[in-house]
Amino acid sequence: MAGRGEEKMSYVGIIITYVFISNLVLSQFLGLCPFIGVSKNSESAIGMGLAVTFVMSLATLISWALEHFILVPLNIEFLQTVTFILVIATLVQLVEMAVRKYSPPLYQALGIYLPLITTNCGVLGIALISVNRNFSAIESFLAGFSAGLGFLMALLFMSGIRERLNTEKVPRYLRGTPIAFISGGLMALAFMAFDSALLTNLLKAG
């Protein structure tokens, strides 16, 4: 990972890292609210995943620019978190207006979870990670985009599992959210197979 004093990571390495190894949901447990709340069906999962990917991609890039061209030169880095949240909130408003205009059914399906992207700690998390690891502008955008793809992938996996569970005889006390958390935990265990050693081997093989 491209941090201060750390070896620079290739673009391919960044993609593999934030989609699989450091998946925000399954490895770092960020953004669990929409992960559980919007994964009841694949359509909602895809819509939310694409919206979060869009917001993450632009938020990391804009946050990088604000950090390097405004906050650091003016010595006001203490406003970093507030500034990044304002960027995210603005992007979410744009996404919300676009979804409401062009896809009302999806807007209704996402419900309260769409505006809650603003408070999705995964979006703020990847923006802060990109800055703290001293990524370049391209690396920051790629990290945000990859993290969004990882979020989308996790949502799709979970929605597929939950749709299948709807046809199975799940004990009454485990139906709904309890079985969703159990399934998510098992997915997280499976993703432990993706580690830094795997990344190193893949890059060497390439």
In short:
The protein has one domain. The protein contains 9 helices and no strands.
What's the layout of helices and strands?
Blueprint: H1 11-21, H2 32-37, H3 42-71, H4 80-102, H5 104-110, H6 121-132, H7 137-165, H8 177-191, H9 196-205
Helix pairs in contact: 1-7, 3-4, 3-6, 3-7, 4-5, 4-6, 6-7
Q: Could you please describe the fold and organization of this structure?
A:
- Helices cover 69% and strands 0% of the residues.
- The chain has 206 residues and is mostly helical.
- Helix 3 packs parallel to helix 6 (121-132).
- It is globular.
- It has one domain (11-196).
Strand content: under 5%
How many DSSP E strands? 0
Class from helix and strand fractions: mainly alpha
Overall geometric form: globular
Uncertain parts: 1-6
- The H-and-E topology, N to C, reads as HHHHHHHHH
Described by strand count, sense and barrel closure, the largest sheet is: none
> Kindly, what is the distance between the CA atoms of the first and last residues, rounded to a whole number of angstroms?
18 Å
Helix content: 55-70%
pLDDT averaged residue by residue: 87
Rg over alpha carbons: 18 Å
Number of domains as seen in the coordinates = 1
Treating each run of at least 4 consecutive H or I residues as one helix, how many helices?
9
Q: What characteristics describe this protein?
A:
disordered N terminus; 206 residues; 69% helix; mainly alpha
